[in-house]
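User: I'm curious whether this sequence folds into something compact or stays loose and floppy. Could you predict its structure so I can see for myself?
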Amino acid sequence: MSEDNLFSPDEERLIDEAFQHLIDSYLQTKHRKKVEIITKAFQFARQAHKGVRRHSGEPYIMHPLAVAQIVCSEIGLGSTSICSALLHDVVEDTDYTTDDIKNVFGPKIAQIVDGLTKIAGGIFGDKASAQAENFKKLLLTMNDDIRVILIKIADRLHNMRTLESMQPRKQYKIAGETLYIYAPLAYRLGLNKIKSELEDLSFKYEHPNEYRDIQEKLSFSREELNNIYEDFTSPIVEKLDELGIKYNMFGRIKSPYSIWKKMNKNNLTFEEVYDILAVRIVFDPTSPEQEQNECFNIYLALTKIYKSHPDRLRDWVTHPKANGYQALHVTLMSKSGQWVEVQIRSRRMNDIAEQGIAAHWKYKEGSSYEEDETELTHWLETIKEILEDPQPDSMDFLDTIKLNLYSSEIFIFTPKGELRTMPQGSTVLDFAFTVHTYLGTNCIGAKVNHKLEAINYELKSGDQVEILTSKSQKVSPEWLDFATTAKARGKIKQMLRKEERANQKFGEAIFHEFLEKEDLEVDSVKMERICRLHGMNSREELMIALGQKKIILGDAERNIIKGENDSWYKRFWSSFSSPKDKKPGGADTPSVDVKNTLIINDLDMHKYTFASCCNPVPGDSVLGFVDENGHITIHKRKCEVANKLKSANGNRILTVEWQIENSLFPVTIYMKGLDSIGTLGKITEIISKKMNVNMNKLVIESKEGLFEGTISVMVHNLKDVDKIQKELKKIKNITTVVRKEE
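Assistant: Here's the prediction. I'll summarize afterward.
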């Protein structure tokens, strides 16, 4: 940011117009009209940020104004939140303190601004070591006042809307962090509209070519989609008007990110994504008591016009999602032979879907803010339990939390008939930990619908579950393979660490007893040799193994400590030294400057690792990740592993450019279509003869007249991949040809 004495008259006018727009928006809400305190907060922030500009060059005060506008118009919060949004960067970026805010605006606004200051600079900041701690702060502030995180999400939304002014490396980090944590948080708080925009903006900066491609295809399809919408909705309009229902109906086109995610997940082309169009009906109920009945009346009216998909009815009216979302979703077969999803919501349900928890306050007249936090109480209790774990590994911690941010829900009944909401994919073990930690740690299985099932049995919506326990049961590391919820995984890891600490303590006692008995002393060098003798990475690992009786101390350890056969030892280990043992900055380790772009060419590509999780090839949008030893791994930007690395270790991310011409890279292509004689021969002919490409592996499986398979080839770059795909698509009866992403 640069300092200026004055802004131009045009800039001053823009600032005044933005503030007036904020006040006009606020006056249109149902909140009590506290214009005076909002004006006071604006003048205070304007003075504090006087002369300061953003990276884009605009006056800095435009950012707090924009965040306050989002808080007011898009989230629906009142004067306290608007003031806090206007002041959210004052303590972080200027000489003012939280006490100054408290003296001028009172304790509540000061508390929220203080919460926002503690988590300033994104969740993770610039230091990777602080990532888990910063995220803990963010979640703990939710428990103090949920408005802190709502304003923080508004802050992130405006930063994403103005991300073009940042350097590409910063764009990747911020977009990755947004997609990994902020979008799921927005979803969990019921802010569906903001969640979708955060996803699309992240997608736009992380994968600009794919984003542009889908946007272009959507624009070409728009006229066709409009025609489908008109044909599909005209009989519905006639029917609803006949019933005298007051409603609004509009089409909703699937977001670019959702389309891209579905294409990647299911190996589909754009044309094969069938649910791009959805229809939403928002009605005004005749009374609050009739709201649910009228939802189902509209559903019944629709099923008299169109046939419904038997497996696609979603009733979130009588069973709301954990974030408060309510709606009835039904998928209907149109006259043109296409499935169209229809979402039926009351006006209240629609507001809650768009504005999340903030909308609940709007519909509970006379209730206080504190009384309206019930929607998140259960989730926050789970988070608090995870936060009690003293030293979680940073990445594990983020993964554990994220498990319960994005998840479809199923409904499980206890033996007494109580209803519990669980994330989809939950197992018997997850349910046991949800009910009580004791049940989880002693779980040996369950009666599911009165039938015995193992602890790894995956539950289905509507199951009635009775947990079976045994006092002799112990938590084991294998449990992490089938525990899916944040609470269960957090508790299992906590107990495994507790057991490790006990084994380590026992191991230390065994080691000291051995030293005393043999009258020996050990230094760090000899300890390192003993660790390497047993293939251990640290003293802690060695002590745990000793405590578990996996290692018995004897002559080998005694000889190392006494220094006997020392020269033999050096020769022995030097013959086994690997490149990883070399210090960073050695001959095979490139020197790294994360601020500059990394150029990869044919001569030095052996210095880098190309990630097997996503198999990047020249032409792919990629990034580099520098580990603690200075080694660099190249990932595709859209790789899930890369997303985690961007979120948690943004300061270790490199921008990368390809300058490779002659080297070969592995790629796997997925195909499916109608099974017919000669298809296999045509595939091999195109790959080997026409394209002259080296084929490593071909797997084809045929079933009930259809085939699907994969082909592994070596290519020079992305152009080779595109050429192969185009040629394979020309073969008659092949319907899908896509590159596999793992």
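Summary: Residues 122-131, 365-375, 565-589 have pLDDT under 50 and may be disordered. The first strand starts at residue 247 and ends at 253.
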